[in-house]
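Appendix B, record 7
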Amino acid sequence: MAVLAKGGSSGSQLVACLMAAIFLVVVSSRGAQGGSIAIYWGQNGNEGTLAETCATGNYAFVNLAFLCSFGSGQTPQLNLAGHCDAYSGTCANLTADIAHCQSMGVKVFLSIGGGAGGYSLTSKQDAFKLAQYLWDNFLGGQPSAPGVKRPLGDAVLDGVDFDIEGGDPDYYGALAAYLKAYSGKGKAGKEVLLSAAPQCPFPDQWVGKALDTGLFDYVWVQFYNNPPCQYAGGSAANLVDAWHQWTAGVHAKYIFLGLPAAPGAAGSGFIPVGSLESQVLPALKTSSKYGGVMLWSRYYDDQDGYSSAIKNAV
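Structure tokens (predicted):
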């Protein structure tokens, strides 16, 4: 609080008071600005519906996982294990759920890649064809175009998530550029948002070059299954060091702390709620790029209630 100088006029005192009040409001609003939670959904039939996931109110982003096969002349394959079968057309039943999520302000992304399946881009032309496929089948493209099946029905997703763990790293940047070029086009006229889920060793071997394009809006770094850069043994030192590398080295709007939602969700890297709130988040929030926490996955979060326990601290 400002201390007024003795002998000042009432007018100058009033101005000083007003300036102090404005300063306090600004500081308070900055300090109160928190992050949000992103979740992966689609790889376990026992994790509840997409509509139920969004209805929790815990998540600002949901990544539909995964488009697990693409590139090299393959027909892209959507695998939402246990929820629906894209081949028989039953995934179109998700149209209403996606609309429900979006009506709540939740951004819904299609996540491409994952740890299983086969995918690789072999050229810029390959990247262009995949971008066109994603635009026509999941984003704002023409549903009547030849060969377009719209696996999720009429839903227009908000963006594409790059959960890339294989393939040639040279062409994912081209894919990002082609996708971003669709922003503002189509009937919906929406921006095509891009996110990525790199491993925490910096730079990531698969999407590091793509991130160098500066086209990504959200980067949820996987700070798990990588002991050199994750929380371990009660210490956040390695994680915080890696976090500083990511926030300094990647041009993106927001960087997220990617974590397993329960101890069983990953081989290592789970952070107990108390440690996350007292040790980790305060250190990360000093960055203007702090965006929040990403969790793998809805199934484990539903079992453990992790997002509900941390959301007020995020």
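Remarks on this record: The chain is about 35% helix and 15% strand. The chain has one domain: 37-310.
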